[in-house]
Design brief:
The structure holds two protein chains of two kinds. By secondary structure, chain A is an alpha+beta fold. In chain A, 50% of the residues lie in helices and 17% in strands. In chain A, the strands form two sheets. In chain A, strands 3-4-8-5-7-6 form a six-stranded mixed β-barrel. In chain A, a hairpin with a 2-residue loop joins strand 6 and strand 7. In chain A, helix 2 runs antiparallel to helix 12, helix 9 packs across helix 11 and helix 9 packs parallel to helix 12. The radius of gyration of chain A is 28 Å and the shape is elongated. The two termini of chain A are 32 Å apart. Chain B contains six helices and eleven strands. The chains are: A alpha+beta, B alpha/beta. Chains A and B meet through helix 1 and helix 10 of A and helix 1, helix 2, strand 6 and helix 3 of B. The complex binds adenosine-5'-triphosphate and magnesium ion. The site of magnesium ion has 3 residues of chain B, from helix 1. The site of magnesium ion (MG) has 3 residues of chain B, from helix 1.
């Protein structure tokens, strides 16, 4: 390891292209997946912008927007029975069909939360002025950017959601939508829009005395109820929801394909660089072979070099990734650098570097001590 | 061949003193056969391109000797050295080295043999440009499983000191003179204290001041530490330092002589007749008392 690192540093100019290529692969992967995660962060808006620590819903909840009905009393009991949990509240969310005033249908995402000031499920974009107006049944708030998509012109316009008349009483700012515009309303309104029974809700939200206890409570609930429920800490559910969309929609696949191409370029450059570097030391290695030093020692050295190229390349890519994500932010594009995503991309890039080291090992085949005696 | 006694040299690591031992634990006596080559032949190429680089050569090397292989360019010296040291397989003939018929060993056994017994100095320095002088030595000592990291470092520093490179262990090849680089290469060959040291033109890249230093060092090694050195050269200035000189021409061993130091008149020894059995290890007749330099 010492010799590899020393060589890498001393001949840094030779190894630089490989390090650059590795860094580029890592950068490309992280930014692409970050962009996609940022895009799908729209799915997790209800989680990321509300104050709940714990989300409890129907079994096998894949994503927050795909929640199915559960029985309110039982679910609340289960969550509230944990001493760490300060309070619980009900929350409803689901897709519904929106009939535009002048004809045509649109899918929309109904969010029904409690309306008091300390509400857990209320997203922060739903300001107090707005949510106070939602108490009247049938009143809703939508985002200003969705007005035309919903066939609306002004506050006060009406439309229908599965046969229920709704009236827009206010507009939010910055609640983007993906599959269908978000429609915010009270729990009661949501229940009728989503055609749920009086006892049915989608999620129970919990707030802990100490938010740090959330994972502990989640683990306990999972142990107690197993597959009867799904329960997640908020950040976990948020990632799960985005990840589900990333993988389900094949958008992840498309970007993944580009990222794989980036990896391939990195692999070719790295293996060629390592190959050339090893080939340049052929005579030195041959001396060692003559003295009976086993070939695997040299292989280990090349592999260690490959690993270092990987580690250095990945580490150098981090500041660049961070910088570029900030630049994207300035232009209103969210690049979400989730640590799990960054860790996976970095890990894969490292594996790529090590594998290209494996490929460079073939140059050691030409290490032939007899060639020194000419 | 009359059941020759061969020896297994190994290194006494515990005492820290350089000792060469029989496999029974007795010291390897100087002046006994350490290497015996019989009827070695090696050709290269096919058809009209065929050259016989080594043509039915037999020779014997005694332990503790400084032996030269000399001859004009293309006479097969390097090829001979490669065969003797277990690097290049002969087409026919055998090499007994420290009791092993090295060309009947498997590749892995032969590699282990080289690891245990052989050091090499090649033309050109062949040093890793990124590594310091000390690291070049340490690398062989640790990778060959001879020493731990600390021991290797101690030995490397000690050896560099003895080679006149004390205080230069941290320098890289680019920061060393040619003579110093060659001494590092020698240090690398010596770090595991080999019984046999093979050198191909170790002085050809050096001016004579530095070349002479290197030769004296090799000679010193045989005198003080009982190592056996086989050295290929075309430089006659090395002859005075040698115990024995093998002269090659066109792949043949044409003559063998004493070095001037061991025998001032450079007495010419009779060549063995083809097929004649070389003197056995018991007959020390071929080895005359050395005259101190
Ligand atoms: N790998 C090889 N392939 C073909 N021919 C070879 C090979 N190695 C050596 N030879 C030939 O064998 C002959 C002896 O070569 P060798 O290298 O042993 O000579 P040498 O005495 O060491 O010469 P020099 O003093 O120039 O180093 C030469 O004619 C050379 O061309
Ligand atoms: Mg030669």
């Amino acid at each position: 390891m010492g010799y590899s690192l020393t060589t890498l540093w001393y001949e840094r100019q030779r190894y630089f292209p490989a390090i650059l290529a590795v860094g580029f692969s890592s950068l490309l992967g992280c930014l692409q997946f970050g962009l996609l995660l940022g895009l799908f962060a729209i799915v997790s808006i209800p989680i990321d912008n509300s104050r709940a620590d714990i989300w409890l819903g129907a079994p096998q909840a894949l994503s927050v927007d795909l929640g199915r009905p559960i029985r309110e009393s039982q679910a609340v009991d289960r969550l509230a029975s944990n001493p760490e949990v300060d309070r619980c509240e009900t929350y409803l969310q689901g897709f519904a069909y929106w009939a535009k005033p002048n004809g045509g249908m649109e899918l929309c995402m109904v969010m029904g939360c409690r309306l008091d000031d300390s509400s857990l499920g209320r997203i922060k974009q739903l300001t107090p002025e707005l949510h106070h107006q939602l108490t009247e049944p049938g009143s809703i708030v939508v985002d200003e950017s969705d007005l035309s998509r919903l066939g609306l012109k002004n506050i006060g316009d009406t439309a229908e959601i599965v046969g229920n008349r709704v009236r827009v009483v206010g507009l939010t700012k910055g609640v983007k939508s993906l599959a269908g515009p978000y429609v915010m309303c009270s729990v009661t309104t949501a229940r009728s829009l989503l055609r749920l029974m009086p006892e049915q809700i989608t999620y129970v939200l919990g707030k802990c005395h100490d938010p740090a206890d959330a994972p502990k409570v989640v683990a306990r609930l999972r142990a107690q109820h197993g597959t009867d429920i799904s329960v997640f800490a908020a950040d976990e559910f948020s990632f799960r929801s985005r990840w589900h969309w990333l993988t389900k929609t094949k958008a992840g696949f498309a970007l993944g394909y580009a990222a794989v191409l980036g990896l391939l370029v990195g692999a070719v450059v790295t293996s060629q660089t390592l190959y050339a570097a090893t080939a340049a030391s052929l005579r030195e290695f041959a001396v060692l072979r003559a003295m009976g030093i086993p070939r695997w020692r040299m292989s280990v050295m090349v592999m260690t070099q490959a690993s270092w190229v990987g580690v250095v390349g990945v580490l150098l890519s981090f500041p660049a990734i961070y910088g570029l994500s900030k630049v994207a932010d300035i232009y209103g594009v969210q690049v979400l650098l989730d640590w799990r995503m960054v860790a996976s991309v970095s890990g894969i890039t490292l594996v790529m570097a090590v594998l290209s080291g494996l490929y460079a090992l073939r140059s050691l085949k030409y290490v032939e001590p007899a060639l020194l005696l000419r | 061949m009359s059941n020759p006694r061969y020896f297994c040299g190994s290194l006494n690591q515990s005492s820290g003193v350089i000792e060469r031992l029989y496999n029974e634990g007795e010291p390897l006596r100087l002046g006994e056969t350490i290497m015996q080559a019989d009827n070695l032949t090696r050709g290269f190429g096919t058809g009209s391109q065929f050259t016989l680089a080594v043509d039915h050569v037999s020779l014997e090397v005694l332990s503790g000797q400084f032996v030269l292989i000399m001859g004009p360019s293309g006479s097969g010296k390097s090829t001979m050295l490669a065969i003797l040291s277990g690097l290049l397989k002969p087409d026919s003939g055998s090499v007994y080295c420290l009791g092993e018929n090295i060309w009947s060993l498997t590749d892995i056994e032969r590699e282990q043999f080289r690891l245990d017994h052989c050091g090499f100095i090649f033309q050109g320095y062949n040093l890793f440009s990124a590594l310091s002088a000390r690291q070049q030595l340490e690398m062989v000592a640790t990778w060959g499983n001879h020493f731990s990291q600390q021991e290797a470092r101690l030995r490397a520093d000690g050896l560099l000191e003895r080679l006149g490179l004390g205080g230069k262990g941290h320098l890289r090849p680019s920061e060393l003179s040619g003579g110093e680089k060659q001494r590092v290469a020698i240090g690398r060959a010596l770090i595991k204290n080999p019984n046999l040291l093979f050198a191909d033109e170790p002085t050809s890249a050096l001016d004579w001041t530095h070349g002479e230093e290197v030769v004296k060092l090799l000679r010193h090694l045989t005198r003080e530490e009982g190592a056996t050195v086989v050295c290929v050269t075309h430089d006659p200035r090395l002859v005075p330092f040698a115990d024995r000189v093998f002269h090659m021409e066109d792949g043949h061993l044409v003559r063998q002589s004493y070095g001037y130091m061991s025998h001032p008149e450079e007495a010419v020894l009779p060549l063995p007749e083809p097929g004649e059995i070389l003197p056995g290890p018991g007959d020390v007749v071929t080895f005359r008392p050395r005259i101190a330099p």
